[in-house]
Design goal:
Largest sheet: 8 strands, mixed
Low-confidence stretches: none
Radius of gyration: 18 Å
CATH class: Alpha Beta
CATH topology: Rossmann fold
Number of domains: 1
Strand order of the largest sheet: 1-2-4-3-5-6-9-10
Helix content: 25-40%
Strand content: 15-25%
Number of strands: 10
Order of helices and strands: EEEHEHEHEHEHEHEHEH
Mean pLDDT: 96
CATH superfamily: Alpha/Beta hydrolase fold, catalytic domain
Structural class: alpha/beta
Length: 285
């Protein structure tokens, strides 16, 4: 492929539960060898993944679609305070709709799913997993507050018990920007996220209720589970738990050590940041 060709990016939209969601599709210069839907992390807008998506299209000949979850980023259609979105809406329904949309666009091309944090966490609850040809998850796994190393564990405890609840109750949403704790997220997302991360059973109590029963054998495709060595939000030992949810997949794992790439840090949020481009080839290898 000609590395000097400018990659075309098309604005798209699709519906999830009656909500119109915004997407961007980064197209290849030649017929693609695969198409990939990139499911983002909680509170991370799709624009953050643009450099990686463009790199996939330009250097790997893989069409990549990014999108924003309902009531967030470019998919926001009303005030954050009016949102009724939950973590299940984002990690189950919106991701399913995005995958279905991309599959409809490229019905004859191998379909990949790349999930960052929340982006890979709830796939066992989704449908038609047998239609996926490959899954790569990055920094994704069920994490309890006691999984965090010190001193970050104190920060997490303060977020879940001291700062987050009153701020969300007062504002009607989690005011991350105002608190300098990232982006704003809907209250329903925050409360469900908090419930999972402060429970030893994580989301198990909601199976059969807000979550359907999982299908641990539904995914037959290769599953690559990637952990980041210096990730204090979802440390490697929590990431490995994700493999237990997909007994039917051919599973492999990778720990990314920033020092091995000449990097000082990568952490939980930044694996897809342009400054950490050195790790990208190994993420998808």
């Amino acid at each position: 492929m000609n590395m000097h060709v400018e990659i075309e990016c098309k604005e798209q939209w699709f519906y999830s539960g009656g909500r119109r969601l915004s997407a961007r599709v980064f197209l290849t210069a030649e017929p693609p060898r695969a198409v990939a839907v990139l499911n983002g992390a909680t509170g991370v807008p799709q624009r953050y993944y643009a450099d990686f998506a463009r790199w996939l299209a330009k250097t790997q000949n893989i069409v990549c679609m990014t999108f924003d979850y309902r009531d967030f980023g470019t998919s926001a259609r009303r005030s954050m305070k009016a949102s009724d979105a939950t973590m299940v809406d984002w990690g189950l329904h919106d991701q399913q709709a995005a995958r279905d949309h991309l599959a409809e666009m490229f019905p004859q091309t191998p379909l990949w799913v790349i999930g960052h944090s929340l982006g890979g966490l709830l796939m066992q609850f989704q449908k038609d997993l047998d239609r996926i040809d490959r899954v790569i998850t990055v920094a994704s796994g069920p994490v309890h507050i006691t999984d965090h190393p010190f001193p970050y564990r104190f920060t997490a405890a303060a977020y879940w018990f001291l700062v987050g609840p009153p701020a969300t109750a007062i504002a009607g949403y989690m005011p991350g920007k105002r608190l300098r704790l990232g982006t704003d997220i809907p209250a329903g997302v925050f409360w469900q996220w908090r419930r999972w991360c402060t429970s030893r059973s994580f989301f198990a109590a909601e199976m059969g209720r807000t979550l359907p029963l999982p299908d641990g054998t539904g995914l037959k495709a290769p599953l690559k589970v990637v952990a980041i060595k210096d990730d204090v939000l979802v440390p490697p030992h929590a990431v490995w738990r994700l493999m237990d949810y997909h007994q039917g997949a051919t599973r492999s794992q990778l720990v990314v050590d920033p020092a091995a790439y000449g990097l000082t840090e990568v952490g939980h949020i930044a694996p897809f940041a342009a400054r950490n481009k050195a790790i990208w080839s190994d993420l998808i290898a």
